[in-house]
Fold:
Amino acid sequence: MRVPTLPRVLAWVAVTVAVVLLATAGSALALGERIVDIRVTGASRTDESTVRSIAGIKIGYTLENDTLGSVRERLNTTGLFADVNVWWEPFGEGVRVNISVKDKFPWAPVPTASWSSTNKSVGLLFVHGNLFGWGKQLVLGGRIAQLDSGALLAYRDPALFQTWMYWEVKGVYQRTIAPEYVNDPAAGFSVLNPVSPWRKTTFASLGVEPAFGVAWLRRVKTQVSWRIEKLDYKSTEYLDPATGKSIGKDGAVAIDPATGYPVIDPMTGYPTILSPSMKGGTVGVGRAAVAFDWRSRLHAVMSGQALGGNIDIGGSEFGGDFSFWRASVFWEQGIKILRRHNFIYSGFALTGHNLPLSWDAASGGPNLRGYLYQQFRGDSQIAAKAEYHFPLFSIGSADFRGLAFYDLGLVWFRQLPEGCNLAGVGAFCMRPDGDMRTFRYVTKGFDRDRNLHTSAGGGIRFFLRSVAVPLVGVDIGYGIESHHLQYLIVVGA
Structure:
């Protein structure tokens, strides 16, 4: 083997250094130059003016150190493009910025399905992410589920008149069966591994929600919206938490499943008549929200942080029959590691007053993997999770990624009518505000042993690089307090 001589080594080093210096010098020479032309290529499905608007630069701007990186990040984050390349070149009395993009396929019928131990669903979504080539978005779909079937029609214009203003409107139909589980250990039933909910309430809602917002400097969003929905109460079924056997529906006499005889109310001496858990009516809500979003996405990897919050006020001033309020805040941080690894952690807090059953804070299932769907509910909530995502393998444009996660959830009732920690069949307490909301098997106030729940586990995600969301997700969560495994499978968005 021929060994390089010292002069040859020195010559090679000199050439390398010269190339680096020339490249650096070229880049430095461009800084501070005026942008005199912007050229867009490769956009076959997206209007050129939309690409320019998303890029956020105009002729006359000055080329700064981070200009090209910011343009690339903005275009990648929209999810409209499978590939983005941005560079400059000398042009006239300044520089030209070249933007080369490759459009993603803008629409698709997306089958959806989910499987968990207490809630299984199947549905179909039609999603168009680039209507008219202007980046407008349309979602149409529906699903049939054990507990929360529904349909959705939504339209969003993310750049009204090519400005930072945006608007959206969505119509939602939902048919819900809301389970309520025992949360008071003194009631004598299992709290962490329940056999059955003690009550299931069926209701339907049909609503519309228009919203208007401004994305200040593209990163700070302020939004106001108005939600009006018709709430149609169907029925309430009571069950024995120990066996899952039906005690009866509201309006009927309560039957003791152990004896088959009516339950006698000890206060009156007469058979207990089961009461509704809520009432129907109109829910009118005004919402104000703010969000600071510095997140960026490159395929399946998210980096940056976001925080925000909103307040919902329900009442007659917004056309509703229910008076309540609810406020929440959130935080999320993504860290890119080793280029394709991703550590994501987030936090969420919520509190409310006089919440209708349909607006309860709920934990379990997707947001607390390792527990049942909506196993814990209340009017106050704190939640946090940490996930580490890592690549497994790729086949063509399909990426398979794994994750490890840890979830934390705290849900409790901060406010309740007096005497709600009662375990008898006829022992109910009703909120004295006219919404007919009744409570049972619950305890007021936060208690760490009763209200703090955690889970840990792992999962798999399947991504297609031309689609911004995972197509298939499988999670296995272990409830650390319950010592039970729960499985969650999600197909589609």
Remarks:
- The radius of gyration is 28 Å.
- Residues 6-30 form the longest helix (25 residues).
